[in-house]
Amino acid sequence: MNETIRIGVDLGGTKIEGVALDCAGKILARRRIPTPAHDYDEILRAIAALIGDIESETGRRGLVGVGSPGSLSTHTGLIKGSNTQVVNGKPLDADLSKLLGRPVRVENDANCFALSEAVDGAGRGARVVFGVILGTGVGGGVVVNGEVVSGCNHIGGEWGHTPLPWMTREEYPGARCFCGHDGCIETFLCGAGLAREYRRRGGADARGQEIVARADGGEAEALATLDAYQDRLSRALAMIVDILDPDVIVLGGGLSNVPRLYEGLTARVAAHAFTDALDTKILRNAHGDSGGVRGAAWLWRDED
Is the confidence at residue 2, as pLDDT, over 80? Predict the structure, then answer.
């Protein structure tokens, strides 16, 4: 009899990725397609086609989990808080279940990333793992004893939409966030926030990778920008340590690939955290940008 496979789908703003995992976590198939981000029905059809291609390649029907920005409302069953706006107010799990003819589990994409790293990534073996997404947006997920803690409102880990801690006079009140508040952590630590800080310090328009390259080349404005970014990240993570006290914090998203970010980060977090010594490990992810899609597949790890 064929072994059960788990298919994970990561619904991103620009791409949709799908993978099939066996029970040991080995990738059997992997595909990426562009996201039709402005058409909900097209998103549904694209996900269904992606799953169909993966099942054709593996020759097996799979259990399907989907990681999506935002979360399912406990009151309406509709997606809320997604920065892929056309998904908001839609019953993503029910629509996909109907289209695919099987149950589909939908979870926040940052929760999926945290689950992936807790199961067989940088946080493997840890009791409490906090997964961080630093990219176009800023998200977080909490995993305790191998289980996602999404909370009664399905917003567990949404640290990106809390105010930046210990804000300075120059930082206050912060930029307006898409959620409607000013000074959210996301506005400081997302890619656009990094670029905005660089411009504030006299740099020209540049994306994150360009700013990092200029810092590596010794440019003063870029170095100061990355130092400010690390300082803000350390304050934001210290708040997580004070509230959750995780064993491991795993960084993911495009900005987690900057080696300079980790230099002295633990010491900076320790300086803000309410503890005499910081035992929490702050680690780079083990699965790169595949973390979220693997975690979506692991939403079915309770099934044989």
Answer: no
* Burial letters 211-229, b for 16+ CB under 10 A, else e: bbebbeeeeebbbbbbebb
Question: Model's pTM, two decimal places?
Answer: 0.93
The string of pLDDT tens digits covering residues 254-301 is: 999 999 999 999 999 999 999 999 999 999 999 987 789 999 999 998
How many angstroms separate the CA atoms of 172 and 194, rounded?
16
- Count of residues in the chain: 304
- C-alpha atoms less than 13 angstroms from C-alpha of 281 in its C-beta half-sphere: 14
The CATH homologous superfamily to which domain 125-284 belongs is ATPase, nucleotide binding domain (3.30.420.40)
Q: Which two tokens stand for residue 144?
A: 């305790």
Predicted local confidence at residue 178, as pLDDT: 87
What CATH number has the domain spanning 5-112+290-300? 3.30.420.40
**Identity at 208, one-letter amino acid code:** G
Question: Structural domain boundaries of the chain?
Answer: 5-112+290-300, 125-284
Long-range contacts of 203-210 (CB under 8 A, 24+ apart): 208/254, 208/255, 208/258
**Separation between Cα atoms, residue 48 and residue 42, nearest integer Å:** 10
pLDDT tens digits for range 185-218:
999 999 999 999 999 999 999 999 999 999 999 9
